[in-house]
Design a protein that fits this description.
6 helices, six-stranded mixed beta sheet, alpha/beta, Nitrilase/N-carbamoyl-D-aminoacid amidohydrolase, Aliph_Amidase/BUP, about 25% helix
């Protein structure tokens, strides 16, 4: 399977222009025989939604989105989704002009410079899904920082985790380095869930924030097999072997003894004690 990481710099609020750019990149990936093209989080709308006066959300069945997946490769694209009353930070998986899966970001950061809960509502479901290339799952940026979600995706059969992100280069004046954290997190996720991980971050400057890129592919052993440059736009083409997941999970069956009943009982206890449902 050949995947393409589309590390892009979108223009805030310019949905039409970002669609044109996305189509051009997809055609370039198709010329390199890519099977899947993955774009960053909110790649059609931009991140600083609070600076926009107009509602730029899109319906998931917008024909312009379906058209992106008519050039050969499957496509994962990020947008602000129009959910009628609510808006969602969503990543759509499109194939052959059809919507295969819609993942709505589950964990919306609302600290430091991030104010996502002002502009979007959290999703309510995490599901792995079948494609013609295998069984995948999508986790948008901060979703991947919640340790239970990659594990749940793997337990649901996901052999490849797609992680679109908008990760800024610097959040505070302290020693926190997002790139270093992402490296450790992605390595741990790939190694412990024994799956391929595609991390696609954006680049560029927006509303005083600089995005660092560094998109990458990790194999089921936790090794980085390809990395895009920092700061600059890039289309990184990588060949992966989905069957490596099954080989790795057979070598060391870390996921086989899940004890889901035990987890259900303990989660129910914690919910009852905390009142958090």
């Amino acid at each position: 399977m050949r995947v393409a990481l589309a590390q892009t710099d979108c223009r805030l609020g310019d949905v039409e222009g970002n669609l044109v750019d996305a189509e051009r990149i997809i055609k370039d990936a198709a010329a390199d025989d890519a099977d899947l093209v993955v774009f960053p989080e909110l790649s059609l709308t931009g991140y600083a939604l609070g600076q926009l006066a107009d509602d730029i959300s899109l319906w998931p069945d917008d024909p312009r989105l379906a058209d992106l997946a008519r050039h050969g490769p499957d496509v994962v694209i990020g947008l602000l989704e129009d959910g009628r009353i609510r808006r969602h930070n969503s990543a759509l998986y499109l194939s052959g002009g059809q919507l295969v899966h819609n993942h709505r970001k589950l964990y919306l950061p609302n600290y430091l410079i991030w104010e996502e809960r002002k502009h979007a509502s959290p999703g309510q479901h995490m599901r792995a899904f079948d494609t013609k290339h295998g069984r995948f799952a999508t986790l948008i940026c901060n979703d991947a920082w919640q340790p239970m979600l990659p594990w749940l995706a793997a337990q649901d059969g996901a052999e490849l985790l797609i992680v679109p992100a908008n990760s800024a280069a610097k959040l505070t004046g302290g020693s926190f380095d997002p790139a270093e954290y992402w490296h450790d997190l992605l390595t741990f996720t790939a190694r412990m869930q024994q799956c391929w991980v595609l991390f696609v971050n954006r680049v560029g400057d927006e509303a005083g924030v600089r995005f660092w890129g560094g998109s990458r592919v990790l194999d089921p052993w936790g090794s980085v097999v390809a990395t895009a440059a920092t700061w600059d736009e890039a289309l990184t083409i990588v060949d992966i072997d989905p069957a490596a997941v099954r080989r790795r999970r057979r070598e060391i069956p870390l996921l086989a003894d899940a004890r889901l009943g035990l987890l259900r009982r303990e989660l129910e206890r914690l919910i009852n004690e905390s009142g958090d449902d």
